[in-house]
Amino acid sequence: MVMLEHSGQFLYADLVSGGANRPIWSRKQIEQVIGYILVAPLLCWMLVVLIYPIFSLLALSLTNTRIIGAPASFIAAENYVATLQSAPFWASVARSLVWLLGNIFLGTVVALAAALLLRQSWLLARHARVWILLPWVIPTVAVSVIWQWMLNTNYGVINIALQHLAITSAPLNIFGSRQLAMVGVIVANTWHWFPLSAVVMFGAMHNIPADLYEAAQIDGANSWQQFRHITLPSIEKVLFALGLVGGLWTLNVFDTIYLITRGGPSDATQTLPVLIYDTAFKGQRIGLAAAMSVVAICLLAALATLYARIAAPKEE
Amino acid sequence: MSELQIRDVHKKYGVLEVIHSISLDVADGEFIALVGPSGCGKSTLLRLIAGLEEITSGEISIGGRAVNRLAPKQRDIAMVFQTYALYPHMNVEDNMSFSLRLAKVGEKERQERVGKAAEILGLQPYLKRYPRQLSGGQRQRVAMGRAIVRDPAIYLFDEPLSNLDSKLRVAMRSEIKENHQRLKTTTVYVTHDQIEAMTMADRIVVLNGGRIEQVGAPLDLYDKPDNLFVASFIGSPAMNFIEGTIRGGDFLAADGTAIPVGFSLPGDGRPLQLGIRPEHLRLSAEGIALYVRTIEPTGAETLIHGTLAGVPVAAIFRERIAAQPGQSITVSLDVDKTHLFDAATSMRI
Prior knowledge:
The complex is a heterodimer.
Chain A (H helix, E strand, L loop, with lengths): L11 H6 L9 H35 L16 H7 L2 H34 L1 H10 L2 H4 L2 H11 L6 H8 L16 H26 L3 H10 L3 H12 L1 H16 L3 H6 L11 H11 L3 H26 L5
Chain B lengths: L3 E10 L2 E11 L4 E5 L6 H9 L6 E6 L2 E2 L10 E4 L11 H11 L4 H15 L14 H13 L5 E5 L7 H18 L2 E6 L2 H7 L2 E6 L2 E6 L1 H6 L4 H6 L6 E8 L2 E4 L4 E3 L11 E5 L4 E17 L4 E7 L2 E7 L10 E6 L5 E4 L7
Parallel strand pairs in B: 3-8, 3-9, 6-7, 7-8
Antiparallel strand pairs in B: 1-2, 1-4, 4-5, 9-10, 11-12, 11-14, 12-13, 14-19, 15-16, 15-18, 16-17
Helix pairs in contact in B: 2-3, 2-4, 3-4
């Protein structure tokens, strides 16, 4: 801002100088006020969509609310005690961990393989980069229908393929089996989300200078050694970020599981979000579900912190 | 023995031929520089030697062994890249020992070889640092160290100094030369900077459009360029050229100026190019007028850009000249140092 000599008009310079060279606000104070004014809309929005719901959730978790709007009374930490003593709750925590690890492992492997494939040829990359995004843009409802059909016991193509390839002798009832249902939903969810990770990884790989690979070739590195010593360390930060964001995202997935298995068979795919939904809307115990949600938030925060401590790339 | 032989090598990308029948012998321990303008094929030729590109036809052999079909790692070469290509997540020691670890060399020997190379290059204090913690010159030295530890048959340098500032470039130039004198390993060095080539190489290969224009010792190329391209490429400021013909002991320039050369040629009258280097023009009381456009005194000498016989020329004088732009001075040509080229074929006469 510059000092302006312009009588009869409000000028920023006047505010600084008090109009007669008397300072009212320092430049720093004015910049602070402008800063607050600029972030105020975002703060208000955060208050409405984040802070208020969290406090509401905390308030709900201390009551015996069964249905929203119905009269309820304050029961202190009873819901929390019930949550922490609940075997189904801890079973769903364990299933959530299986769900998380399964998705992270399969998703990373498939996305990494797709990204490496894209990098092999610019022609493939040019065309496939668009097509590979298709599963990602398909609505979750459609994904659920597709995978219910693909893995169907009687007419699912995967079951037919498995039998033709003599991998199985009889059709597998994947979503009807306590052992296989979790695998089925993990495969469906990975198929839905791997394109996003693959494109991000491909972008990170694209930025690795080609002469690093050439230097490694001359140094005697084979393809695996080039991947191990150049590609992986170069995309380490991207993998870490994808693991963190993707992990939290995956743990919160409700729609894919609920649309395919509704948490079954016999709760075999009942992860935390599904259990909380069932408790709130099927069991009509919203207070208890709120307490479970608060505990889930704490567990997620602890898990994210642990992951960041263990897996964060070292700053050299 | 680690001599390099290139026999009738061609390289095509689809229908585009970028290397045309190149043959070259590099003796064991020789330092050879490939020079030429951008796109002349010098880096491509180096990459063909390294095995980073496949030759379309011909043969490349190192130490008498054909290496055409061998992977880069099997060719017993080491390469220093323009960008240094240091592994960013490895420290200096790991960068230098990477090839040895891949070759499963024992830890003790690895440490010895890295230590020796680090000592030669003055890198010992930096062994635990990462590339991004080093200056350009230090990175360049690490790249050289990475090559030295491998003790290869041939060193390949791809414009290794072009990312450095001019002062560091001069320092690194003599460092590379010193290392070559110490190690006596066959070296192929690509550069677009002819001063680098002139000062470092035993022989220079001048490339143009994927073909070799001339191969020779630096001063041979400077004193006896085979053709107009080499004459104009080697030397800074570049050689001056005046179009004209020889008539009765004079070179008659296109604008009618007669320049006495004191010899005649069979078949006088054919179109020629007379070449004269800037330092071979002399101030004289009688001679040809040089109209001064700009004057650049550097202390040790004076560089004048101007017009002589109707063509733009550069002239370097040891004397300090008081002339101003717009004025003219009289100069004569050092006739023994002039070069004549056939204007039709561009070849030296």
